[in-house]
Task: structure prediction
Amino acid sequence: MTEATIVVGAETTAPPGAGPEGARSLASDAWRSLKKNPIFWVSTALIVLFVLMAIWPSLFTNVDPNAAVLKEARARPSSSAWFGRDIQGYDIYSRTIYGARASILVGVFTSVATVIIGGVMGVLAGYYGGWIDSLVSRVTDIFFAIPLLLGGILFMATFPNDVNSPYLLVVGKVVLVLAIFGWPSLARLMRSSVLQVKPNDYVQAARALGASPWRIIRAHVLPNAVAPMIVVATINLGVFIAVEATLSFLGIGLTPPAVSWGVAISDAIVALRTTPHILLFPSLFLSLTVLAFIMLGDAVRDAFDPKSR
Amino acid sequence: MAEAILTAKDLVKHYPIKGGVLRRTVGHVKAVDGVSFELLKGETLGIVGESGCGKSTLGRLLMRLEEPTSGSVVFDGVDMYAQRGRAMRKLRRDIQIVFQDPYTSLNPRKTVGDIVGEPFDIHPDVVPRKGRRKAVQDLLDLVGLNPEHINRYPHQFSGGQRQRIGIARGIALNPKVLICDEPVSALDVSVQAQVVNLMEKLQDELGLSYVFIAHDLSVVRHISDRVGVMYLGKMAELGEEDDIYGRPTHPYTQALLSAVPVPDPTLRDKREQIVLKGDVPSPANPPSGCRFHTRCFKAQEKCSVEIPLLEIRPDGAGGHLSACHFAAPREIIETVDLTDTPQATTFDSGLRDDSSLEPVGDGTQDS
Result:
């Protein structure tokens, strides 16, 4: 296992012995083109910013997001509360900063879960074929027939949150439902790229040498088939954040007292015509996060696609 | 006669054709349909034939990369298809393959050291862990690559160098048999010669036996001791190199050889080229009787009914295996085999009959 990691790592930095004009690997070519892409740097900067918000919100604000000052409810942005205050008198700046955590957690956990489930299923279906392939393909067909949002609403309505539910359980439920409906597309993708890699002669050569299926998958198939899935998973991360906000907006994702952008948007709707700034800030941050992840995914995909260069 | 190391008996590989909504089997592509031969220790057996005649499938069957529909392969006294698990892994050490396309046969994400060293990872008892790097470097040296390039990636090498890497991987476990599936077809001619010479050198040094699959008649002639000609999944003719190239008795072999360009311009018009009619029939629905009768210039009633067996038939000077009811040698302009002649005599005028030259400058003459 360590060998494979070292090899991949060595390749992404610089192939040893290659001069500046020498032939380059796909990964180092991709890195070169990424370095020149401003979209990559903008999206990376935004993502780093949002991740910092999620991990250490206290870096950005020392106002308690749950401190309601009712007499200043609906206050406009001022020096004491930069983004103003919402209907309950909460500081919107503080709540927006603290809301990043829920979105990032849901996005990252869901992406990791879908990559693991979808990746394993896709590799099994693509590599072994036969009845495993048929089974996985039909199951993904069934999941494709159910829209993500509808499935989410059904699931969350069936298992509603208690007011006293711990934070991680609430987040975990959203992650679970998004992962259940998100893995089939990655499984499909992984299956197709494994099918592309499998007939290559180097896989046949490993078989001819007597390598075990596990070794062939780990050393030959995965490293050559995983790139498209990573790209799509990055784009999906943004989509999952948006869906989490949608579920929260509908009142079935994260629910108060959890702080989240979706919850904040939902609360702001009643005051939309009189004090639109309450809606503006959480929506802006949500859009920026989703945009950042989708832009990053796009940039990486373009860099890895030799035809786009 | 040397001992046989690899014996194929009635090898058959049919691929099902699935059709309809229920994916039922509606027919079979008969890629390899009853092929038998022996490979002797230390010899090179060339297999020639046009595209789609089952050469590569035959190679994959010999490697057990595919399971045959029927038939058997006996390797060194052991029935290959009866082996399971550990025994099969052990057997794989002795029979290896070199692939056609050097651009897809090497994993682009691994260094040369990893690729050539992989056989040692899979069979850890061959070389102790500490000696592996040294062993890999020795192998690179043996195939004519710089051992210091061990940390480079395949894309940093040319096609010929990549094929050498593939050969190094093939001989890493010191096999007894190397299946070469068109190892030089993807290379340009000068590099072909280098690789073929390398393979001959390795055969001398390591005592390998080769099954050399190719569609290039001259390359096969150069490297082979015996040659088999395949047509539509069957062996049409099998014999010593001189028998096949000098005294072919099967019409298909004769047609193939007549298509080889003659390097001597003075002999060009004297040669009768056999032009075959039509295309190769579909292997899903091969002709009855002799597979070749639809395109054969000798075909008669009998050919479409009775399958000719691959048996020894007279070729004018002894006999060799041929699968034709009307096997007979045919006058062909023989191309001289220069394999064993020293370089100096190759361009000697003695090989050409200068008296046959027509006087230059007299215009065309009717004769």
Remarks:
- Chain A has a mean pLDDT of 83.
- DSSP finds twelve helices and no strands in chain A.
- Residues 56-73+81-308 of chain A form a domain with the MetI-like fold fold (CATH 1.10.3720.10).
